[in-house]
Amino acid sequence: MREVNPNEVEELLKNNKDVKILDVREDEEVAQGIIPDAIHIPLGFVDTRFEELDQSKDYIVVCRSGRRSAAACEFLEEQGFKVSNMTGGMLEWDGPVK
Length: 98
Known about the structure:
This protein has four helices and five strands; from the N terminus they run βαβαβαβαβ. By secondary structure, the chain is of the alpha/beta class. It has a five-stranded parallel β-sheet. The protein is globular, with a radius of gyration of 12 Å.
């Protein structure tokens, strides 16, 4: 599984790289702040909603600390998606949130 740290993610977003953020945290966690333009699908629904995602895009998967996003990455890789896990999760994210 590919991994990327929060600083690298922020640089990719600043430089308009064609990456999508997938946030797999629960609703109440996302209510406290989400990376702008991130797609929100809680981890428990990834296996039933992954078809909403575009397989031609690169996704960076985010959760609170990096564990749930790692599980989501494993599942999505098995489905043929190009994904990277953001290590440290939102606990280490210093970039913008909405």
